[in-house]
Amino acid sequence: MSFVLTELLGEEKNILKIILNRPEMRNAFNTKMAEQLLSIFRNTMHDVQIRVVVLSSSDPMSFCSGADLKERKGMSDEDWRLQHQLFEDMVYALEDLPQPTIAIVEGFALAGGFELALNCDLIIASENAKFGLPEVTRGIMPGCGGARLLPQRVPLHIAKEWLFTGRIVDAQEAYEVGLLNKLVKNNELQSYGLELACKIASNAPIGVKGTKAVTNKVLTMNTKDARQFEIDTYNKVILSEDRLEGVLAFNEKRHPVFKGK
Questions:
Q1: Number of neighbouring beta carbons within 10 Å of residue 76
Q2: In terms of domains, do 17 and 102 share one?
Q3: CB 187 within 8 A of CB 171
Q4: Which residues of the chain have pLDDT under 50?
Q5: Residue 232 belongs to what domain range?
Q6: Residue 235, pLDDT score
């Protein structure tokens, strides 16, 4: 049984939309669903035809409610550890995708579901979206990026409040503190998400991937190393055919046709 659906979007079919599809469980991910997501992420990593990845949900009331605690009932410590290793591999594969990633959040994004969104580059949400990392209320803590990535999205003191209390935050508050790239009306979310993905996909993919690599990596580097990594990546990008096409198209007053080469 497939808990994850995929479709190719855009005129060039170069946008991969990944749809979480376990609505009867509010899209909580179990072992099987995590295995399917991990496989898709790993395959996409080396797919040069895919320029943007969109992560969405088949349930307008729930993006993802996190790990399925019903499956975890009665697990031994070792079984829990092994399953969590799978979950780690899944979110790290998402975070490590070279293509830009967009989380399109409707309804609840809780615990591991919120962490899936945090492991994406951009987050857009509908007005009915709700976010929370309630792990501490269940004797756990965020283990798939929540405690590490949330402070990169919102001010540290706000992140600590959300993490320490485990409270659920509505979309308006999430937008006001900077978590979201865009807050969209419920019935406009999917179309806006596609529009944003198409805008990114229309740009030179090597340049976009290089930009993502630099912006992600320099956060953990000192100034000297960050400068070197940035210019090394820049020098690789300008050797591409897309750079020649971009300059030529500008001078010929037309839209460039990028090939990812």
A1: 8
A2: yes
A3: no
A4: none
A5: 205-251
A6: 77
